[in-house]
Write a structure and sequence with these properties.
By secondary structure, this protein is of the alpha/beta class. About 20% of the residues lie in helices and about 35% in strands. It contains three helices and nine strands, in the order ββββββαβββαα.
Length: about 200
C-alpha cells in the first residue's frame, strides 16, 4: 500500500481589508482547478467509479473570528465536501478521466475523506492565526488492490489577522484549489491508476 502526501505552502501579502463580521463564508471553486491537466493524462487508465466525498472533520467550522475576548465560529455556506467533490470531478474530466455511470461497475473505485479544512487559530488558541490548511485522504480500490494517498494545501496569510470573513473566504478558496490540483500535479496518481488497469 502506497501513501503519498503533498503540501504546498505559499505566502500572501496582506492588503487593506474592511472590517466585517459574520458567521457564514461563501467559498468558491477557482478557475485554476485542472489548469495543469491535459486530456492525455487519463489515457489508458481505468474508468473512475466515484464513491463520493465524506467530511470526517470533528469540527465543521472553517474558521474563528476573534474580537477582544469573543470568538465567533465561521461556517461554510455550502458544505465543503460538496465543493471538494465538484472540484475533483471537474479536474478529473479536464485530465481525460472518465466516470462509470454505475457505481458498482468494475473500475477503479475512488473514495475521498476530508480530514482538515480551517483558517486562522483554533477556537481557544492564540497560535496559528495566519495559517489556513486543508487535507484529504483518497483511496483507490480495484479488484482487491488498494492505493492510499493524502493530499493537502496550506497558505500562510498574514491578512487573516484582520479577522475579516472575506479574507477567510479568499484564503480557504485558494487552499481548496491547491488540495484538488495537487492530486494531478505529479504523476503518482496517474501511475497508480494505470497500474490498477493492468
Amino acid at each position: 500500500m502506497k501513501k503519498v502526501f503533498f503540501v504546498f505552502v505559499c505566502s500572501v501579502i496582506a492588503v487593506g481589508v474592511a472590517n466585517a463580521e459574520t458567521l457564514t463564508a461563501n467559498l468558491t471553486l477557482s478557475s485554476s482547478i485542472g489548469a495543469q491537466c491535459t486530456p492525455s493524462m487519463g489515457k489508458g487508465s481505468q474508468q473512475i467509479v466515484w464513491k463520493g466525498v465524506t467530511d470526517k472533520r470533528s469540527v465543521k467550522a472553517v474558521g474563528v473570528l476573534k474580537k477582544k475576548d469573543q470568538e465567533t465560529e465561521v461556517v461554510a455556506a455550502e458544505p465543503v465536501e460538496k465543493l471538494l467533490e465538484q472540484g475533483l470531478k471537474t479536474m478529473f474530466e479536464k485530465c481525460g478521466y472518465t466516470f462509470a455511470a454505475d457505481t458498482n461497475a468494475n473500475g477503479a473505485k475512488v473514495t475521498v475523506e476530508l480530514t482538515e479544512f480551517f483558517a486562522g487559530s483554533k477556537k481557544g488558541l492564540i497560535t496559528g492565526e495566519t495559517d489556513a490548511k486543508g487535507t484529504m485522504r483518497m483511496n483507490i480500490v480495484k479488484e482487491g488492490r488498494s492505493v492510499d494517498f493524502e493530499f493537502g494545501g496550506q497558505v500562510h496569510d498574514k491578512g487573516l489577522r484582520k479577522k475579516n470573513v472575506k479574507r477567510i473566504e479568499s484564503t480557504l478558496s485558494d487552499v481548496l484549489a491547491m488540495m484538488i490540483n495537487n492530486v494531478t500535479s505529479t504523476n503518482q496518481f496517474s501511475e497508480a491508476m494505470k497500474d490498477l488497469s493492468k
